[in-house]
Batch of 3 targets.
Target 1
Amino acid sequence: MVKRLIFNLNNMGNIRRIHPPSLKAKVAVELIKETETLSAVCSKYSIHPTQAGMWKQKALQGIGKIFSGKSDYDDQKKDKLIEELYRQIGQLKVELDWLKKKANTF
């Protein structure tokens, strides 16, 4: 299996590796299982222990969402509603400004 890593230049001119989500999940699962030590898993995947620990914490926080009954669909629906409401507020403000301007001309 070939490791696919994306390299990115940050604003400091350093090269950063961008790991795919599948690798992050695999590392997090191995760390949660605790079949190997943190340093063994990190050397196996050539990553820093701090980074692996952060991925494990993020995975453990995400597990709570799975069983909470909320889904990404609910979040998307909520975001869409908020976006629509902001659009309507903007439209009403424009209409109000136009009416105030017309009322001042009389």
Note: Residues 1-69 form one domain.
Target 2
Amino acid sequence: MNKELKELAEQAGMECSLGHWYITDTNLERFYEDAVIEGMAKQMHSSVDRAVNTMGKEWVGLTDDEMLKTLIEIDSETVRLPIGFKLFACAIEAKLKEKNND
């Protein structure tokens, strides 16, 4: 290892032995450990939040009026909700409900 690199590493509180870098400054080591632990805690908290939020939600389907408004957004000439469209929309909702409750 070149001398300049070794001096910089020592100033940073690190050393290289057998091709691996080690933290020699105990304050820096504690800082690194704390940062890793904090990151893991945030990740676990986020996972728990997502799980709790999805478990507590009750499925809410679309009303006939919402289906009609959605169809009008696609086809502005629509004046009523065709039964075929309603059956198709309900079938999609049922599949989504099934997938989200597994």
Note: Residues 3-55 form one domain.
Target 3
Amino acid sequence: MNTYILYKEAITISSIKITVIKKSFDEDLANMYLTDGVGAGPCPIFEVGNQYIIGDEFEAPSGFCTWAWQDIFYVVHTLRNGGSFDPWINRKGTQVVCCSDAIRPICFLIERI
């Protein structure tokens, strides 16, 4: 955790932990819309339990899906800079989000640490 002076106010920048908590695959949608149908299979990049730490570098972790990073970036940025998503989330400093792949979505738990 680092503290920076911005506009004469101290801002604390926190580290973030991203955990893959769910991996889904909709076979019906895959058959209707994907070129390879169900042969495309679930997302090949993530597995449930994968964890990533975002520290001072504030960039996508190595090997992280570019599309998923773009989808979750606003949450990472908000939590990293001290923001919160309460009252919608019952655990302060956390949020659950997913990537925008409707056929093979990945759900992430994002936590300020």
Note: The chain has a mean pLDDT of 90.
